[in-house]
Design goal:
Length: 438
């Protein structure tokens, strides 16, 4: 059963990651927003149905299983509907309110077209409200990422401190953790060097980078020197600050134009033995005999994956990781015990925080779609300053800025400094409070 659940989750993540940017790329901004809204609404009602289904009702149980089985048909159907409904550019560039109150509503052939037609009342209420929600939720997602990252960093620091001070192989753990911390810092310094090579960095950007890195180094030294932190905690904090800076100034794409590849000289000997080359040639001939539908499907998958930029995938994976880790860390800090890390949040918890985390876990598919769509819109907005992003601005999108990312960097370091100022070194509290050592 758990294999089926894992396979289902992988298929859901893959289809979501591929289809939403495909809707934006093929159908435009309105099509992508409509598809993500319909997909999030479907999984929202599916989660509500699962949550409201009692264990004794076989009818509702059958209904939930039926919806779960048909979701793989619903997703392509919603994508086709969105491409068919919203990919056509409206001929009238005026908004619904302007058309209504300007006395020119007679241009609409019927009331149904005025309400359900392109850029009508229904589209403004649903897709327009979804657009505003995603735009306004971007600061909340950004700040939540910083707060959850700080929780993960501090929990990692407590666990490593317990391993060094209370475990039987403290020297081995200390050497290994020091090597790991040095590797993390070295990798962060390399990516920081990559940032300094970008041509679009101005004097103001360089000043902000210098201030952020200086504050991060000061906090790391303060944490290690005061005994309230450790090398692992400091290295992770420094790496997260560098990650935020890297996300601000790069899209994980080459900073300069890539020239055409130089033709390579023919080798005197084949790269592999003749038996391997013969098997490779036979395999290519066998693949060429496959039906054209398989080739078309493969080309479609490759084209869909090419619309997803690595920056969005990395940001989504990291944000989901820290959000999920926080749902485990917060109950562990509340209960002062590490055994809570192995327990899923539930609505049956006695306190309000556990119930809120339980609700978020039930509606995780809709939250994932919302976070991913917000990241895609942030990516398209950040690339709208050049010629490649004119399509986003022409379809009503805003030009992106990195204000909230800088606020996240400053807020994360300020919160960590406050923790170092007010906290105390106490190994028997926090996540590792209930761990025992023989």
């Amino acid at each position: 059963m758990w294999i089926i659940r894992i396979l289902s989750s992988v298929i859901f993540l893959t289809s979501t990651v591929v289809t939403i940017p495909l809707a934006f790329d093929v159908g435009g901004r309105a099509c992508g927003l409509a598809f993500s809204l319909s997909l999030a609404s479907f999984y929202f009602f599916y989660s509500v149905l699962r949550l409201a289904t009692p264990t004794t009702s076989r009818f509702r149980w059958f209904l939930v299983k039926l919806v779960a089985a048909t979701q793989w048909l619903v997703l392509p159907s919603l994508l086709i509907w969105s491409l068919n409904r919203f990919s056509v550019e409206p001929t009238d560039t005026r908004g619904w309110v302007e058309r209504t109150f300007s006395g020119k509503r007679a241009e609409d052939t019927s009331v149904s077209q005025w309400i359900l037609g392109p850029d009508g009342l229904a589209e403004r209420v649903t897709v327009g409200a979804w657009d505003k929600l995603l735009t306004w939720s971007t600061p909340a997602f950004q700040l939540s990422e910083g707060f959850c990252s700080l929780l993960v960093i501090q929990a990692s620091g407590q666990v490593t401190r317990w391993l060094v001070n209370r475990s039987g192989k403290s020297d081995s753990w200390m050497i290994g953790l020091l090597v790991m911390s040095a590797s993390v810092i070295s990798s962060a310094v390399y990516f920081l060097y990559r940032v300094t090579q970008f041509p679009e960095i101005s004097n103001v950007d360089a000043t902000l980078i210098g201030m952020a890195i200086t504050c991060a180094i000061f906090l790391c030294a303060w944490g290690i020197g005061s005994g309230k932190g450790n090398p692992v905690e400091s290295s992770l904090l420094f790496a997260y600050i560098v990650l935020c800076i890297y996300q601000i100034f790069t899209d994980y794409q080459p900073s300069g134009p890539v020239g055409p590849p130089q033709p390579s000289e023919a080798a005197d000997f084949p790269p592999f033995p003749p038996i391997i080359m013969a098997s490779y040639t036979t395999l290519l001939q066998a693949l060429s005999l496959l039906p054209s539908a398989i080739h078309a499907t493969f080309n479609f998958i490759v084209a869909a994956l090419s619309t997803v930029t690595p920056s969005v995938i990395i940001s989504l994976a990291y944000r989901l990781f820290v959000l999920y880790a926080s749902t485990r860390i917060i109950p562990a800090v509340r209960d002062s015990g590490a055994r809570t890390l192995s327990q899923e949040p539930s609505l049956e918890d006695s306190d309000g925080a556990g119930q809120i985390l339980g609700v978020l876990s039930w509606f995780s598919p809709s939250i994932l779609i919302t976070v991913y769509t917000s990241l895609l819109m942030q990516h398209f907005a950040s690339t709208s300053n050049g010629d490649s992003g004119d399509w986003w601005v022409s379809q009503g999108g805003d030009v992106g800025n990195n204000l909230w990312r800088w606020i996240n960097v400053a807020g994360t370091m300020a919160l960590y400094a406050l923790e170092l100022k007010l906290g105390k070194e106490d190994l028997d509290s926090g996540v590792v409070g209930h761990w025992k050592a023989d």
